[in-house]
Amino acid sequence: MTKKINSQDIRQKTREFILEHFPTARQQNITDEDLLLGNNIIDSMGILEIVTFIEKEFIITVDDEEFMPENFQSIADIANFVQSKQHH
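The structure assignment produced for this chain is given below.
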């Protein structure tokens, strides 16, 4: 049985990944609520990198129909999405 990870841990791990892989995120000192797509921090390829990361890190599967901007707009949105997937 896999351990459920809390939202704060998801946010922290996702933030670390984004800061490490996307220099603009470091330059803008992003918060968990900052828009990643709208502020040119990540692009569509960046979303694929984040999806690959969260699938491996949190042992979830992102289905094609879940590739919606609202699931990946911010670190907070990503954490909410991951948590919702863990409850299934």
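Interim note for the steering committee: The radius of gyration is 12 Å. The mean pLDDT is 91.
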